[in-house]
Design brief:
Layout (H helix, E strand, L loop, with lengths): L7 E5 L6 H4 L1 H11 L4 E5 L5 H11 L4 E6 L1 H12 L3 H4 L3 E6 L5 H5 L6 H10 L2 E13 L2 E7 L2 E5 H16 L2 H14 L4 E7 L2 E7 L1 E5 L17 E6 L4 H12 L9 E6 L1 E7 L4 E3 L2 E3 L5 E13 L3
Parallel strand pairs: 1-2, 1-3, 3-4
Antiparallel strand pairs: 5-6, 5-16, 7-10, 7-14, 8-9, 8-13, 10-11, 11-12, 13-16, 14-15
Helix pairs in contact: 3-4, 8-9, 9-10
Amino acid sequence: MAIEPDRWGVIYNPKAGLNKVKKRWGRIRSYMESKKVAFDYVQSEGFGSVERLSRTMVNNGYKIIVIVGGDGALNDALNGILSADEKLRDKVALGIIPNGIGNDFAEYWGLTLDYKEAVDCIIAGRQKKIDVGYCAFYANKEHKKRYFLNAANIGLGARIVRITDQTKRFWGVKVLSYLAALFLLIFERKLYRMHLRINDEHIRDKVMTVCIGSAHGYGLTPSAVPYNGWLDVSIIYQPQFTQLFSGLWLLIRGRILNHKLVKSYRTKHVRVLRARNAALDVDGRMLPSSFPLDIGISKEAFTMIIPK
């Protein structure tokens, strides 16, 4: 049976955060019904199911897919849509109803946890082609590619993303999560020996973390925008103890690039030849640390529904 062009395929991700956000779906659903939205919805069933469900929705003919979830669910949906039938996926637009613990990409567009605002945004239907980052690597001799909307992190940044997600899951308070990240920085200022190639420049050095962002990158690439065809790169070297506090303050204020131990680049491609023992994540999803790897940008590869 053909799907009506304006019918939403909604994927609700109840494991995206605190228990209390699971109760939000009833209110979200009631509001959509009050707005006469035609929709079908499914609930995710654990890690990986959002990717499978979004791919299935595309192949079944849905033109509007809505994710009720956070950054991780968005990343899964992105990869599910881009792995669907090519002729069908090019006609799909993705909408966001922020939910759970990490909504950095939604916040980039000015969306908050106000679900009414998000639903109204999707109803208005303003669509924009945006860039999509990708991370290409080999795992068990098999070539893989993982797409991202926000950022890829290598080193301590990947661990901070993980620990802030974990602490927000318990506390739900962003400031406390940043404090937890600060303690991690204080007690584990580990450096990773890396070899990067950016814009034909080879960087061989001991580095604390690298963030490669198409958007804000959890504050580490605050000047990045997902529609200019470029990636922003922030490389953070070893801070002294007293510099940790000023660095965290600048991060919270969105001014981390002003820190003297941060070196920034703008590029279309990063080749990571070595990053010994460093963790790797894209949009908060941990990936196998398999080097070398290539991180690049696909211009206007995806359609988002954004606020006016």
